[in-house]
Structures are given as C-alpha cells and as structure tokens.
Amino acid sequence: MADLKKHEWTTEPVTPVDSPEWRQFLAGAAKDTNNRQRKAELDAQQTSKSVKPKIPMTGKDWVKFAVLVIISIAFIVPILLVLMNSFKSSISVSNEPFAFPNSETFVGLDNYNNGIEKIDFFPAFFRSIFVTVFSVAFLILCTSMCAWFIVRVKTWYTKLMYLLFAFSMIVPFQMVMYPMSFVANQLHLDNMIGIVVIYLGFGAGLAVFMFAGFIKSVPLEIEEAAMIDGCGPIRTFFMIDFPILRPSAITVAILNAMWIWNDYLLPTLILSNQERTLPMAIQYLRGGYGSIDMAAMMAMLVLAIIPIIIFYFSCQKYIIKGVVAGAVKG
User: Fold this and answer.
1) Per-residue pLDDT for 288 more than 80?
2) Which string of DSSP letters, residue by residue, matches 83-149?
3) Span 134-141, average pLDDT
4) What DSSP letter does each residue of 253-304 carry, written as one string?
5) In terms of pTM, does the model score above 0.85?
6) Axis crossing angle, helix 121-152 with helix 156-168, rounded to the nearest 10
7) Using CA atoms, how far apart are residues 282 and 299, in angstroms rounded to an integer?
8) What is the pLDDT of residue 221?
9) Is 212 helix (H, G, I), strand (E, B) or coil?
10) CA distance 264 to 278
C-alpha cells in the first residue's frame, strides 16, 4: 500500500463547509428545488382545471343516448345490408335479403367481377372522379371570390347578388330541370366539361352563403395591412383571406363532393350513354321486363360508396367547425 504521508495527501476539504461560496451554492440549489416544486404544483392545478369532472347521466340523458343509438343504427344497417348481400348469390339476395352469407350462398368476389364487366366500371368511375374533382374545385374558387366581393364591396347590387344566391337555395331542381336541359343542349354544355359549369351554377348558392358568413368574421385590418404593403385585391384575397377560409372551404368541398358523386338525375339529363358516370352505369344493371341483377348491383354500390366514405372520414373534423363559423360569426 502506498504511503499517503509520503505524498503529503490530506483528507481536509479544499473549501471549508461554512465558507461563503458553499452557502451560496446551497442557497441556489434550494431555490432551484423550490422553483421545480412550484412549477409541478402549477402544472397539476392546470391539469385538474382542464379535466372536467364526470357528471352522472340523468334519465333525460339516457333517453337522448337511446334515441341517438337508434338513429345511428337506422343509418348504418342499410350500408351493412348492401355489404352483406354483395357476397351472396342473386337468388339468395332476392329470397333472403336479411340472412348472413353461409357456405351455400357465399359467392366470394364473383359479384364484383361480374358487375365490373357488365357496367364497364373503371371508365365510369374515372368520369365521376373527373366531374366531382373539377366541379368542387371550381365551386370553391369561384364562390369564395364572389363571397369576398359581396362582403367587402357594400353596394346595392352586391346586396341583390347575395339575395339571389340565397334565393337559389330554395328553388327545387325539379322546377328547372327541363328548361335547364334544353338550354344546356343549345349551349353545347351536354358533355363532361359542360356539366362542370352546370354544377357550379347549382352549388353556388349554398357555397356563397357559407363563405360570406365566414368572411364577415375576418378582420378588415388584416387586408388593409396587406394593401399598405403593396398587395392588390387579387393578391390580398389569395395570400390573406383564402388561407383563413380553409375550414369553410373544406366544409363546402365535403358537402358538394357527396352531392355530385352520388348525383344521378342531372348527369342522366345532360350526358349521353357514352359519357355516363358511375351512378348512371350502376342503373344499367336493371335489365328488361323488370329483371335486376341485385347481387352485382350491391357489389357495385359498395365500390361506389367507398371513395366518398374515405373522403368524408378524412375531412370530417372540419365540418362542424366550418359550418358553425360560417353560420354564427359576423
């Protein structure tokens, strides 16, 4: 063992315990500890305030819950029936529509393959995609600009324009469908491009109404600051207002996409058989003398609703936000 005395080692601390430096270190450590404890207490208080206490459900709450469950089942059951019958044979669909598929009635994907071949599914599917995407895009672009002009330019004719757009929402389509089809034929709008213009006209009323309500909540000072920085009206709209309108624009997109994708009457009146959309193509499974290939129709209905359901669930969180903002603000 090495001789500690030889190297003159000592166990005395270099700095005395009662020195000013040591007392300053202890005071700083105690202060840090108190600060951490205080921060933890404040965080705990904030968490306890943000968490709402659980309120027991009363009898009225249970009744409301039961009503909502019944309504949900009423909407979900038809979709489940369509999905279930899409895997059954045509005879089983007609004789036992509410029975689950079994070893005798289950046909796998035969109905899907049969339906795709009969109605020429993929061309009709892409036509519906084309019409829906471009119609919704033009609706959002044109109606948002129109609503911004109506709100910011306060004249008698902008007020009249707003009233006309609001009035168009209460006019039933059945009142104008025959004159509209005649005018569309005379103007050569009875094609894939023309029907986009027609959808723009029919969907403009609700879209302008929603955008106008939302734009009224946008502070005018933001646009004035942009104009002071050198932005013109068009640049101000696209750089300042349009990004703010995103919740309302997504709501308009969802509502119009579901309407246009599922629409059967307007494309039937406007388009020819060579340019039929997916709802038109599915109807061609109805044969002569009342014969209907129900199994193939169920399979095609499943394929038709899948894209719009995916689109809806991916954007559903913006629906209530955009509707409420456009309806009560301003």
Assistant:
1) no
2) HHHTTB-HHHHHH-TTSPP-TTTB-TTHHHHHHHHHHTHHHHHHHHHHHHHHHHHHHHHHHHHHHHH
3) 93
4) HHHHHHHHHH--HHHHHHS-GGG--HHHHHHTTB-GGG-B-HHHHHHHHHHH
5) no
6) 150
7) 10
8) 84
9) helix
10) 9
